[in-house]
């Protein structure tokens, strides 16, 4: 056999190397033929304390698939190394939700792998036969650590290697668009804060998980293989490389000298954001290495690498990162006079173990605070003031006289002031000549303002006692005291109802109340209009919030009478019940006379309407993130609030984007609140044409499923970057997006939906998955639509997606 490819000669300096490379090239062809124990249709496992009925093992016994008990926390459906004492998990199906004892995994007669809780409710499922139109014959736990569902012709229809969690094993491949997501902590297997992503542009990056993927400053490490990378491969020699399409090695991520014949190998993205390679000597090995997992990849100073972006950094808020003595694992430490917020979870960060400095100018407390100097230490982000040139003493005094300053950093005449929370903290000799001056309360010092309140309380008590003695000496004075008490009680009883009648609906709403004059001044007379509808107009304004001037969006309701006044009250009371990063934040309101206005945080990137249907097509990765974050916001409204909220008007106009393109769902004016024991609501038609669920027009009670329908239409618009109805479409069959999308899916031509989108065409697997989810969401029969929680799980890959029917098939069948 002759090889003319020059790149092959580069990879094959010797005959043995050529044989090895040839072996790797044909690996996917024969990997399914290695020895294994078949799992027959109808088999099942039960979550119990490590019995033969709780897991299936591979032929060699190296790996097991099944229920792994995690103490009192529950069970994890997982794959682990079974021959060694440390039952090390390499994959899990339900990592974000442990299951209780008695849960079952069933390999059903129709080839589905289903995880159920003890009550028989489905938690997770794999259904390859539905998506591939080929029937599953058996399942197997392979000696490679790969769990597979296999067809009658030995073709692998589904494998755990295709849906990794935080670990990859020898022979495993990470394709473009796939990622390893670190666990939350060493003992908590749920999704954590970091991901190792093989981007669809061919670049391998380490970045935060669940944030926009195109934000450059949040990539902590990169392989620099944009445009040329194709796969991350953990080959059978134990090395991990980024390969091009022609299988040439572009870069070696981790090299290794330990043979998989004598050692177990695993590479894991750990909770501290470091990608490490570990080895464990097999029983047949003559290695002097201890029987434990040993890191063989080079140490990485992650404390220095992770110094920018979103979140708190490697460690939690108000803590700092430093390497331990072994230089292999970072330690998270609270600064002096600070303690862990949660002693069992260091990632939640630290809090001051003292009373913060009072901002009352009558009691500046400057004598009660001092500074602790931390050498070679810095919190890399979060500065709010900078001065140069100044002395260290000036820097200390300026922070001391500023009640918002909790720490200042000094270096070469430069002074930075920081406030809570402190983020991206690190202590390292590479942070040379930087000194952090941490402001802490002196020992035996307490807040003067608290002392004043206590002293006033004590004085009041003394006066009351003395007065009681004096008044008690006279029957007449006691009578006067009785009359005075009656007068005060009557006075307050008359005042209280007036307060309630003045504005009953805002009681309990903790936000700023603006006067009309304040908002008129903030908008310069309501001249800068952002948006207008039949019942409200949105204006741009600037408001002073004490520390700085902030841009705001002010929604002014038109002709506030009857129903419009009700919509205003609904929007205030609804948003007051919410607290989620994907919902718009209400800063305050005006309820003065005939004026009804809401003050929101300003969204610099406007609405999804302009983002999707503007002059240029937005990035595919950003669109994916927008879809996911919208689903998370809706899931919170439906299941995360104490009172369930139906938005009733999900559409691109009401999906706003902040300066980092984070989704903020807005406009709760039509929202419907449901009590916990209420699942249906009777109401008049609401929402916007094209996004309104069919049950509105049938005078049926509505449920949260109306939002699911609207989200399905919105998801199709995000995928295709076009409106749900295009009257000027080139083909009449493409005018209604929902109908066209289903036809393309049914005919196996989803690529037509993203025909002019090169990024999306490179990610057709996800395009097809999202189209299937959207079709399930727009089923005309509400009971067929999934909940937003299931929608989110399907989008994130936690549960499999079955083949959706035509949206109107159920309605047609009963007509």
How would you describe this structure to a colleague?
The chain has 815 residues and is α+β, with helices and mostly antiparallel strands. The chain is globular, with a radius of gyration of 32 Å. Strands 25, 26, 29, 30, 31, 32 and 33 form a seven-stranded mixed β-sheet that branches. Strands 34-38-39-37-36-35 form a six-stranded mixed β-sheet, sandwiched between helices. The chain has five domains: 34-162, Agglutinin, subunit A (Orthogonal Prism); 164-298, Agglutinin, subunit A; 320-445, Hepatocyte Growth Factor (3-Layer(bba) Sandwich); 509-601, 2-Layer Sandwich (Phosphorylase Kinase, domain 1), CATH 3.30.200; 608-809, Transferase(Phosphotransferase) domain 1 (Transferase(Phosphotransferase), domain 1). It is 24% helix and 27% strand. A hairpin with a 6-residue loop joins β25 (320-323) and β26 (330-333). The protein contains 18 helices and 43 strands.
Can you lay out the helices and strands and say which pair or pack?
Blueprint: H1 6-11, H2 15-25, H3 27-30, E1 36-40, E2 44-46, E3 55-57, E4 63-69, E5 75-81, E6 89-92, E7 104-107, E8 113-116, E9 122-126, H4 128-132, E10 136-142, E11 147-151, E12 156-159, E13 167-168, E14 173-175, E15 179-183, E16 191-198, E17 204-208, E18 221-222, E19 231-234, E20 240-243, E21 249-254, E22 263-269, E23 275-281, E24 294-295, H5 302-305, E25 320-323, E26 330-333, E27 338-340, E28 350-352, E29 369-375, E30 377-387, H6 392-400, E31 407-411, E32 414-427, E33 435-441, H7 448-472, H8 475-502, E34 512-513, H9 516-522, E35 529-532, E36 536-544, E37 549-557, H10 563-576, E38 586-592, E39 595-601, H11 608-613, H12 620-640, E40 644-646, E41 655-657, E42 663-665, E43 672-674, H13 705-720, H14 737-746, H15 758-761, H16 764-777, H17 788-796, H18 809-814
Parallel strand pairs: 25-32, 34-38
Antiparallel strand pairs: 1-10, 2-7, 3-4, 4-5, 5-6, 7-8, 8-9, 10-11, 11-12, 13-22, 14-19, 15-16, 16-17, 17-18, 19-20, 20-21, 22-23, 23-24, 25-26, 27-28, 29-33, 30-32, 31-32, 31-33, 35-36, 36-37, 37-39, 38-39, 40-43, 41-42
């Amino acid at each position: 056999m002759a090889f003319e490819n020059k790149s092959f000669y580069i990879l094959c300096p010797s005959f043995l190397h050529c044989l090895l490379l040839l072996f790797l090239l044909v690996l996917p062809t024969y990997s399914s033929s290695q020895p294994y124990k078949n799992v027959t249709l109808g088999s099942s496992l039960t979550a119990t304390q490590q019995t033969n009925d709780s897991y299936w093992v591979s032929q060699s016994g190296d790996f097991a698939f099944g229920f792994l008990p995690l103490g009192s926390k529950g069970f994890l459906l997982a794959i682990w190394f079974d021959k060694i004492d440390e039952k090390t998990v390499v994959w899990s199906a339900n990592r974000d939700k442990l299951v209780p004892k008695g849960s079952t995994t069933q390999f059903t007669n129709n080839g589905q792998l289903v995880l159920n809780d003890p009550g028989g409710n489905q938690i997770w499922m794999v259904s390859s036969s539905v998506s591939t139109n080929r029937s599953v014959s058996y399942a197997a736990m392979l000696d490679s650590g790969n769990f597979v569902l296999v067809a009658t012709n030995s073709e692998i229809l589904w494998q755990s290697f295709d849906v990794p969690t935080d670990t990859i094993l020898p022979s495993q491949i990470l394709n473009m668009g796939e990622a390893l997501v670190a666990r939350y902590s060493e003992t908590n297997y749920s999704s954590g804060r970091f991901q190792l992503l093989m981007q669809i542009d061919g670049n391998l990056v380490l970045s935060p998980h669940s944030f926009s993927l195109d934000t450059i400053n949040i990539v902590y490490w990169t392989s620099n293989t944009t445009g040329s990378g194709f796969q991350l491969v953990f080959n059978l020699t134990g090395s991990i490389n980024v390969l091009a399409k022609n299988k040439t090695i572009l870069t070696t991520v981790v090299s290794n000298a330990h043979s998989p014949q004598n050692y177990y190998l695993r590479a894991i993205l750990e909770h501290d954001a470091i990608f490490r390679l570990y080895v464990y000597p097999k029983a047949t090995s003559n290695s002097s290495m201890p029987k434990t997992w040993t890191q063989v990849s080079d140490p990485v100073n992650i404390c220095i690498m992770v110094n920018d972006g979103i979140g708190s950094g490697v460690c939690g808020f108000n803590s700092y990162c430093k390497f331990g003595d072994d230089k292999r694992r970072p330690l998270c430490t609270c600064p002096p006079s600070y303690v862990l917020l949660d002693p069992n979870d260091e990632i939640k960060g630290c809090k001051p173990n003292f009373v913060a400095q009072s901002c009352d100018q009558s009691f500046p407390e400057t004598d009660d605070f001092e500074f602790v100097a931390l050498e070679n230490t810095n919190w890399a982000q979060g500065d709010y003031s900078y001065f140069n040139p100044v002395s260290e003493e000036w820097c200390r005094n300026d922070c001391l006289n500023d009640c918002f300053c909790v720490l200042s950093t000094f270096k070469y005449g430069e002074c930075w002031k920081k406030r809570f929370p402190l983020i991206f903290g690190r202590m390292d000799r590479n942070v040379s000549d930087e000194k952090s001056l941490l402001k802490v309360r002196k020992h035996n010092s307490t807040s003067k303002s608290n002392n004043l309140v206590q002293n006033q309380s004590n004085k009041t008590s003394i006066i009351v006692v003395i007065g009681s003695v004096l008044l008690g000496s006279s029957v007449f004075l006691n009578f006067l005291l009785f009359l005075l008490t009656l007068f005060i009680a009557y006075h307050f009883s008359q005042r209280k109802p007036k307060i309630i009648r003045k504005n009953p609906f805002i009681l309990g709403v903790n936000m700023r109340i603006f006067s009309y004059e304040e908002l008129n001044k903030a908008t310069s007379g309501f001249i800068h209009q952002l948006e207008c509808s039949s019942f409200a107009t949105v204006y741009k304004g600037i408001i002073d919030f004490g520390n700085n001037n902030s841009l705001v969006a002010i929604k002014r309701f038109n002709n506030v009478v009857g129903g419009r006044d009700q919509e205003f009250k609904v929007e205030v009371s609804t948003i007051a019940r919410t607290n989620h990063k994907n919902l718009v934040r209400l800063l305050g309101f005006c309820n003065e006379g005939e004026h009804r206005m809401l003050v929101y945080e300003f969204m610099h990137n406007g609405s999804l309407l302009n983002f999707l249907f503007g002059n240029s097509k937005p990035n595919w990765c950003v669109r994916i993130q927008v879809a996911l974050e919208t689903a998370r916001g809706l899931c919170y409204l439906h299941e995360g609030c104490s009172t369930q909220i139906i938005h009733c008007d999900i559409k691109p106009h009401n999906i706003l984007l902040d300066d980092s393109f984070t989704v903020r769902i807005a406009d709760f004016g039509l929202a419907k609140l449901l009590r916990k024991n209420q699942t249906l609501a009777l109401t008049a038609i609401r929402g916007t044409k094209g996004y309104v669920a069919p049950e509105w027009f049938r005078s049926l009670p509505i449920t949260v499923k109306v939002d699911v329908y609207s989200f399905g239409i919105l998801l199709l618009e995000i995928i295709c970057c076009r409106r749900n109805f295009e009257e000027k479409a080139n083909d009449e069959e493409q005018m209604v997006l929902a109908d066209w999308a289903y036809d393309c899916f049914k005919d196996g031509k989803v690529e037509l939906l993203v025909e002019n989108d090169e990024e999306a065409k490179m990610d057709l697997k996800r395009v097809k998955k999202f189209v299937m989810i959207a079709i399930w969401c727009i089923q005309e029969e509400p009971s067929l639509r999934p909940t937003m929680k299931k929608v989110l799980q399907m989008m994130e890959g936690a549960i499999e997606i079955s083949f959706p029917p035509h949206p109107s098939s159920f309605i047609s069948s009963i007509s």
